[in-house]
C-alpha cells in the first residue's frame, strides 16, 4: 500500500507529470517552482540532443523532485542524484519506490563537497548535471532554526563553488550543467564556472511577473565550451493579476 511509505509528519501529493506522486514533509522542506523550471530547462536540452544524452546527475536533490520530472520529460536511461541530509535521502528513495522508477533513478547519500573523493568512480561519466544549490551564503540572512530548512537554504555543507566543482568532475567533455540560483549570485557563478572550466552559454532571468525584477536565474553551461553567453527571453511566473500562472508556466507544469 502507498500509505505504508509515509512516515510521521509527511504527506503524499499528486504533482502531475504523468501522474507522478511525491512524499514531502512540510515542516522540513517542500519543492517550489524553481525545481520545476530547472527540470524543464534541462529536459529541453535532452530533447534537442536525442540519443546522445543517456545519463544525468542531480546535485542536492532533496526529495528527488528533479529526477522524477526528468524521468517523465526525457528518455534518459540513467538518472543519479546526491542528497546529504539522511531524512531527505530516505524520502527520495521512497519517492523512487512510490513511482516504480528504481530501474532508472539511483539516489546517493553524500555531501556534494566530497563527491570528488568519495564518488571518484563516477568522474567524467555524465552527459548532464542539474543543480539547485542553497541560495544563501552561509551565515547570511535570517538563519532558520529548523536544521533541514537551514541546510536546504544556506551554504552550511557545500557552497556554490563546491556544486560547480563537483559538476566539473562528474561531466564528460562538452557535458552540460543546468543550474537555478539567485541573480545576486551571478558574478559568483560565472567566476566559479570559469575557474573549473565550465563555460556559461545561456542565461535566463525569471520574474514573478512582467512588472517585477528577476528573483531567479537559470544558467546553462558547457564543460570546456567556447566563450559566448546568450541571453534568453525572460520567463514570467504569474500573470499581471498575480493570481494565475502565465501560459508558459502552465505549459511547463503540463496543465
UniProtKB/TrEMBL annotation:
It holds the Pfam family MTS. It comes from the Bacteria. Keywords: Methyltransferase, Transferase. GO terms for biological process: methylation. The keyword Aminoacyl-tRNA synthetase does not apply. SUPFAM superfamilies: S-adenosyl-L-methionine-dependent methyltransferases (SSF53335). Residues 52-182 form the Methyltransferase small domain. GO terms for molecular function: methyltransferase activity. The keyword Methyltransferase applies. This is Methyltransferase.
Amino acid at each position: 500500500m502507498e500509505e505504508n511509505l509515509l512516515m510521521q509528519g509527511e504527506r503524499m501529493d499528486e504533482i502531475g507529470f504523468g501522474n507522478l506522486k511525491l512524499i514531502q514533509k512540510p515542516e522540513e522542506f517542500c519543492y517550489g517552482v524553481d525545481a520545476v523550471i530547472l527540470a524543464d530547462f534541462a529536459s529541453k536540452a535532452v530533447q534537442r540532443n536525442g540519443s546522445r544524452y543517456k545519463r544525468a546527475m542531480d546535485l542536492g536533490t532533496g526529495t528527488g523532485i528533479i529526477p522524477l520530472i526528468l524521468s517523465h520529460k526525457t528518455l534518459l536511461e540513467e538518472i543519479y542524484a546526491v542528497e546529504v541530509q539522511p531524512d531527505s535521502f530516505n524520502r527520495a528513495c521512497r519517492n523512487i519506490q512510490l513511482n516504480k522508477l528504481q530501474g532508472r533513478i539511483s539516489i546517493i547519500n553524500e555531501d556534494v563537497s566530497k563527491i570528488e573523493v568519495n564518488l571518484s568512480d563516477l568522474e567524467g561519466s555524465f552527459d548532464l548535471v542539474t543543480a539547485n544549490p542553497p541560495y544563501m551564503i552561509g551565515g547570511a540572512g535570517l538563519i532558520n532554526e529548523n536544521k533541514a530548512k537551514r541546510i536546504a537554504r544556506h551554504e552550511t555543507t557545500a557552497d556554490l563553488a563546491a556544486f560547480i566543482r563537483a559538476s566539473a568532475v562528474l561531466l564528460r567533455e562538452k557535458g552540460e550543467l543546468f543550474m537555478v540560483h539567485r541573480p545576486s549570485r551571478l558574478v559568483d557563478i560565472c567566476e566559479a564556472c570559469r575557474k573549473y572550466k565550465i563555460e556559461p552559454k545561456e542565461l535566463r532571468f525569471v520574474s514573478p511577473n512582467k512588472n517585477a525584477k528577476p528573483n531567479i536565474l537559470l544558467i546553462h553551461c558547457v564543460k570546456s565550451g567556447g566563450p559566448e553567453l546568450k541571453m534568453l527571453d525572460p520567463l514570467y511566473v504569474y500573470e499581471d493579476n498575480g493570481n494565475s500562472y502565465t501560459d508558459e508556466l502552465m505549459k511547463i507544469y503540463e496543465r
